[in-house]
Amino acid sequence: MAIKRRSKVNSTFSMSSMTDIVFLLLVFFLVTSTLVNPNALKLLLPKSTNQVAAKPMVSISIKHYMPSNTFSYHINGKNTPVQFNDIESLIQKELMDREEPTISLHVDKSVPMEQVVNVMNIAKRNQYRIILATAAE
Known about the structure:
It contains three helices and four strands; from the N terminus they run αββαβαβ. The protein is α/β, with parallel strands linked by helices. It is rod-shaped.
C-alpha cells in the first residue's frame, strides 16, 4: 500500500518582498538626505495661515523711517521706542525664569537685513528661540 503525499514542497524563492524593502529604504534615504542641510540658518518661520507652533512671549518690532533713514525698536507693541542698546536688558527682564523663551520679530519690508541680524544675535547670545513674523498672503 503506497501512501502518496498530497502537498508538494515548492522550492522557489519570491524576490518581490525583498525588492519592496529595498525600494522603501532607497526612498527613505533619499528623503532624509535632502532634509539635512548643515549650513542652514535655523529660524522658526510661520506659515502664511498664521499658525505658529511656539507662542511668543515677547515681540520686537523694527520700523524704518525712510526720509531720515532711522530705525525705531518697539517691545510688545508699545508706542514708545526703545534704544537698541537697551533691548537686550529689557528682553532679559521679560523672559527671566521662562521655559523655552521665545521672541517674535516683526520687521518692515524696507528694513535692511543688518538690523534684523542684530536682533537675532541678541536672541542667540541669550539662547532664546526667535520667530520671524510674516504677513498672510
